[in-house]
Structure formats: C-alpha cells, structure tokens
C-alpha cells in the first residue's frame, strides 16, 4: 500500500489551509462529496473569514501575517465593523473556491467521500480507515475533522473519537455560539432586533454568580434569544443539577438608572395626554415597549400624566433589568462552533504537533478552543492549518 508523507483528514478551513501548502506526496481525505461544505454557509453566505483583532494565534501568527497568508492564496477581503474581514465580493463561495484552487495548485491529492472512522499508529505510520473499508497510510497525520457543530454538514465528532483512541484527552464537546431558549413567553417579541447588554448569571445554593456579559444586537424569536452577543454567552450554559441560569438584559446600556428615570419622567410631563405606550416611542421597538410596560405592571392604555413615580421606577427597572430564565441552548444543528475537544495542553501550538502522539497534528475546531463571533474561530482554524503544514 502506498504511504504518503502527510495525510490531512478533513476538507474544512483548517484542513484546506494545511493542504494548500502540500505537494504530490500529500493527500487530503474529505468525508463529503465536495470540499469546504461548511464554509459555503458561513456568515449567512458572506463568510466573515478572520478578525484583525485576533490574538494568541498558533504558530506566532499575527492578524496581519495571517491576512497576508490568505491573500497569497487568493482571498482578498475588506474590513468592516469590529475588525471583521469579509471577501470583497461578499460571497462565501469565493473563499471556498480560493482554498480549493490553492490545494489543487499545490499538487496535494484529494480523495472525497472518505468517511474516516478510525486511526491507528503502527511504528511511524498512521493508517486511517473509512467506513467503507478503504485505508490511507501516511507518516504524518493532520487531523482536521472539526467538532460536532453543524451536523448538517457532516460534523459528527468522529475525529474526537479517533484522537481519544490514539491517547488524547478529549474534553466533552458542547454546542457554542448558539441561541438560548427561555422559560418566558417571548412570542410577543418575535422578530424584534434591538441593541442592549446581556449578563449571563448562574444561580446555585441561593447565590447568584455572574459568568459573563456582552453587548450588541439582541434578536428574539418566539422561544429564544439570539444575536451575536447571546451566542457569545451560550458557551457558559451547562446542565448542572441544582443550578439554574438566567439572562439579565439592559436595553439602555448608555444610560444609568437615574438618567433613564429622568428621561421617562420628562416624557410623561411632555406628553401627559398620550397613552403610556408613547413614553417609550422611538426609544425601543413597539413590541418591546409593550413587553417592558407589562413587566412593570403598567397598563399601556393608562395616560402618561397619570403615572406615579413608583410606576416609573418599575418601568426603569424593567428597561434596565429584564430577567429571563434560560432553559437550554441550541443544539448541534444551530451551533456555529464546538466548545470542548482535544485538551490544548496536549498540543504544541507553535507547531500544532501532539505532545502525546509524535507525527499527529490536531488542528482547528477539533481542539478545545472556541472564540467569540466575528471571525475569531476561522482565524484560529486557518492559523492552525498553516502552522501544521509548516
């Protein structure tokens, strides 16, 4: 049987980055019938492929060095808000094509429909076997199978089992960068998009422990809270007996409670004959205004001029301290990345070589790394791939 110098398992971001630096003695094996399947759907089809603020990247990569590396294989982008880079064409498929063409140009052989299910190391040779019985042997193995996020793209966590069988410690994978389901009826808020600040809090033994907070656009469906800031907090949700979790939302982050109370009081005095619903007109979307008034126990049909100071205090609290009880996080189909995976302490991130298995290079989402939304996870994946290849 032919023995390759390097076998890359997985044709996603990290695997393609690695294979783009290969040659005729390299082979890339992909589970699906086409490469880069997940990249095509990234960023709602736009592909936020890196972030100019990404730090701590493998191999000593700086964001500028990574950007130049990607430009060298044909990915030219423009920077938008918060350091996010998108292809100038605005098409995720163009990022995928640039990666695929770079692999073809390198001379790396490509095998598709190879559903890898096991890996063994015998001496200095790795043998990876597919479910249909086909085998590929190589002296070095770059494991880029991804995690479990995006099962619709074939991500099932098989690579994590392979890594464990080779001797690696694998931290339990959970969905990350996903929406959060809540106990409260959010039907009246469905479709609302509004900026605010979210705090994620854990309750246990009568004590409240703030876990994390983030600001940005908050999106509501009938049953969930979503949006980038929500997804960034979702990694902190864990099923724990005896614990409960909730979100605290501040819809007026730019105003402290006293300033907001003064604003609401002034509007009541300015529009005494208007219904109470008008007090929040132009401040928040109408659906949210009704929700906040209800939370404060105020009848929307009451007149602004009739509202008491206590009612305005309650409305201020509703605007600044809306509390929602979290009942769950989205599943693997909705998650953008995987939290958990191969313990990073078992990998030399300057080379991506395993400290446990010589010749093994785990890269990308298979590792226990999950960054916030905004291109950080793809920055990590690309830097991992380029570093392992080097």
Walk me through what this model shows.
This protein is α+β, with helices and mostly antiparallel strands and 390 residues long. It is built from 10 helices and 20 strands. The protein has helices spanning 13-19, 37-40, 63-72, 92-106, 158-165, 228-233, 257-270, 286-295, 309-320, 376-389; strands at 3-9, 26-29, 50-51, 77-79, 84-87, 109-111, 116-122, 125-130, 135-143, 170-176, 180-182, 193-204, 207-220, 224-226, 243-250, 322-329, 337-342, 347-348, 353-354, 360-362. Strands 1, 2, 6, 7, 8, 9 and 20 form a 7-stranded mixed β-sheet that branches. A 6-stranded antiparallel β-barrel has the order 11-14-13-12-15-16. The two termini are 26 Å apart.
Name the average pLDDT. 94
Largest sheet: 7 strands, mixed
Rg, Cα atoms, Å = 25 Å
Which percent range describes the beta-strand content? 25-35%
First and last CA, distance: 26 Å
- Fraction of residues in helices? 25-40%
Residue ranges: pLDDT <50 for 5 or more in a row? none
Query: Which class do the helix and strand fractions yield?
Result: alpha+beta
- Name the assembly state: single chain
Tell me the number of strands.
Answer: 20
- How are helices and strands ordered from N to C? EHEHEHEEHEEEEHEEEEEHEHHHEEEEEH
User: Any idea what the shape is?
Assistant: elongated
Number of helical stretches of at least 4 residues? 10
Looking at this protein, list some descriptive labels:
390 residues, alpha+beta, 7-stranded mixed β-sheet, 10 helices, 20 strands, 26% helix, 29% strand
């Amino acid at each position: 049987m032919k023995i390759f110098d390097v076998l890359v398992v997985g044709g996603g971001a990290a695997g393609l980055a690695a294979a783009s630096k290969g040659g005729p003695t390299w082979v890339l094996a992909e589970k699906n019938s086409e490469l880069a399947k997940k990249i095509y759907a990234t960023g709602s089809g736009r592909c936020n492929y890196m972030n100019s603020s990404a730090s701590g990247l493998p191999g000593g990569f700086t964001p500028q060095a990574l950007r130049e590396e990607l430009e060298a294989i044909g990915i030219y982008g423009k920077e938008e808000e918060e350091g996010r880079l998108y292809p100038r064409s605005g098409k995720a498929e163009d990022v995928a094509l640039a990666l695929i063409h770079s692999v073809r140009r390198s001379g790396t052989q490509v095998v598709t429909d190879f559903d890898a299910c096991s890996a063994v190391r015998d001496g200095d040779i790795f043998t990876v076997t597919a479910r249909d019985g086909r085998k590929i042997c190589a002296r070095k193995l770059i494991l880029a199978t991804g995690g479990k996020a995006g099962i619709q793209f074939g991500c099932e966590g098989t690579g994590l089992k392979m890594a464990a069988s080779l001797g690696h410690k694998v931290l339990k994978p959970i969905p990350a960068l996903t929406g959060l389901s809540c106990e409260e009826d959010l039907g009246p808020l469905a479709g609302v998009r509004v900026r605010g600040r979210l705090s994620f809090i854990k309750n246990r033994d009568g004590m409240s422990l703030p876990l994390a907070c983030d600001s940005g656009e908050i999106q509501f469906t009938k049953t969930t809270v979503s949006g980038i800031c929500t997804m960034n907090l979702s990694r902190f949700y864990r099923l724990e007996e005896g614990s409960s979790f909730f979100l605290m939302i501040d819809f007026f982050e730019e105003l402290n409670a006293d300033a907001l109370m003064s604003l609401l009081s002034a509007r009541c005095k300015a529009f005494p004959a208007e219904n109470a619903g008008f007090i929040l007109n132009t401040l928040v979307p109408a659906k949210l205004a009704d929700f906040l008034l209800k939370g404060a126990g105020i009848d929307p049909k009451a007149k602004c001029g009739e509202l008491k100071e206590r009612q305005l205090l309650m409305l201020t609290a509703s605007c600044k301290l809306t509390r929602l009880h979290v009942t769950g996080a989205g599943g693997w189909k909705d998650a953008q990345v995987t939290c958990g995976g191969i313990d990073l302490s078992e990998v030399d991130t300057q080379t991506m070589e395993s400290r446990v298995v010589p010749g093994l290079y785990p890269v990308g989402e298979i590792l226990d790394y999950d960054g916030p939304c905004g291109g950080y996870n793809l920055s990590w994946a690309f830097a991992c791939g380029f570093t392992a290849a080097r």
